[in-house]
Specification:
With 380 residues, the protein is of the alpha/beta class. The protein contains 13 helices and 14 strands. The strands form 2 sheets. It has a 9-stranded mixed beta sheet with strand order 13-12-11-10-6-9-8-7-14. Strands 2-1-3-4-5 form a 5-stranded parallel beta sheet, sandwiched between helices. The longest helix is centred in the last third of the chain and has 19 residues. The chain is globular and about 65 Å long.
């Protein structure tokens, strides 16, 4: 019987919104065993949380330095093999860098870093040590997104000619209109979040999805961002034109001030023979549009779906799957890669996806500040 992969976690403690998502995902396919970590900057809170998870208190560490030093003292078969970084944005780079330098596989929340220069450093380091590095663009794990990717690759909608991705939320409204609140939240602090809020947080999901499902990289972008208040240094809304080629164009719309919206992420890809539409709030429905046929609705768990889609489907047809399942599929893809047993390209978002995301964030802000002009997304 193969042993489980030993997983450590940085962040994701008692008050974390994403911690439970990662922990459930890690346990979903029985591939990982959570053995310890640093769950909070307050060590006592970290210990208390580790106790709730029934972890050995000796493996609930004060900080990352402590974790690296103490794990190195353990027998190789007992050590953590992979560490998930679930901390605020500004900690992603130093933590991921230290983990790579100490030969850990890494699972990192997005955005990958706070600057493109930092992303370049991680990219080079990962190429050097060849460790598995996943960036959790969570929505790529949905079975019907994987079905969409497969259908597009197989030419079922023909040559792509239009891409439309939208990610609308309204959660920042209660903060942005209050001067004290918008000045105190870390999401609107460039020192902690980087140069972008909306594009960095949710726009990068939409950008990654556009490249993921089409299999085509964006070449140029033109951005118009909204900061709403002069004393707010971070965008909270934006529209970005995408140019994949002279014949393939697209638009990306992202907002955190779309009043009343919860998590309205939609992906629409149109080819010369058909179109595909998917909405995150109804993730089990993939719509296939043909000019000479009735609208078709594809759902997970059916034999007509691709092997890639079916591998990520855990329940019989008609049983809803959601965000936990999507993240679980990413963790499963990481496990397969660590065990050198990968089956499908795109089973988890790689470091290069996070690298592209950081380039997109910086070029989007540059396009806006230069007067809403076209800028290149060609990699340096």
């Amino acid at each position: 019987m193969m042993s489980k992969i030993k997983l450590g976690i940085l962040g994701g403690g008692e008050d974390s919104l994403i911690g439970i998502l990662h922990r459930v995902a890690a346990n979903m396919f029985d591939q990982f065993e959570i053995v310890g970590g640093v769950f909070d900057t307050n060590h006592q809170k970290s210990l208390d949380f580790g106790d709730k998870l029934q972890l050995d208190p000796n493996r609930v560490y004060r900080d990352l330095d402590h974790l690296v030093a103490e794990e190195a003292k353990l027998a190789e078969e007992e050590r953590m093999q992979v560490v998930s970084v679930l901390t605020p944005n500004f900690l992603h780079f130093p933590m991921a860098k230290q983990l790579l330098e100490n030969n850990y596989h890494v699972i990192c929340e997005k955005p990958l870093t706070t600057t493109f220069e930092e992303a370049k450093i991680l990219n080079q380091l990962q190429k050097k040590n060849n460790k598995v590095f996943a960036v959790t663009y969570t929505y790529t794990g949905y079975p019907m997104i994987r079905q969409m990717k497969t259908m597009i690759a197989n030419g079922e909608i023909g040559e792509i000619q239009k891409v439309d991705v939208q990610y609308y939320q309204g959660w920042i409204n209660p903060l942005i209109h209050d001067k004290d609140k918008r000045s105190s939240t870390w999401r609107l602090d460039p020192e902690k979040s980087g140069i972008s809020c909306c594009i960095g947080d949710i726009g990068t999901h939409a950008f990654n999805m556009a490249e993921y499902v089409t299999g085509i990289q964006v070449k140029d972008i033109l951005a118009d961002l909204n900061y709403l208040y002069e004393d707010n240094p971070m965008d909270i809304d934006g529209t970005v034109l995408l140019r994949f080629s002279e014949k393939i164009k697209g638009v990306l719309r992202a907002s955190q001030i779309a009043t009343g919206e919860e998590n309205n992420f939609s992906v629409k890809i149109y080819g010369d023979r058909g179109g595909l539409k998917w909405e995150q709030e109804n993730p089990n429905y993939l719509y296939l549009l043909k000019e000479d046929q009735p609208l078709q609705v594809l759902k997970p768990g059916h034999a007509y779906n691709s092997d890639f889609s079916l591998e990520g489907t855990k329940l019989p047809a008609g049983h809803p799957e959601g965000i936990f399942d999507s993240m679980g599929n990413i963790y499963y893809g990481v496990a397969q890669a660590i065990k050198d047993n990968s089956k499908f390209e795109g089973a988890y978002p790689k470091l290069h996806d996070g690298y592209r995301g950081m380039h997109f964030i910086e070029q989007t802000v540059a396009s806006h500040k230069q007067g809403n002009v076209w800028v290149s997304m060609e990699e340096e």
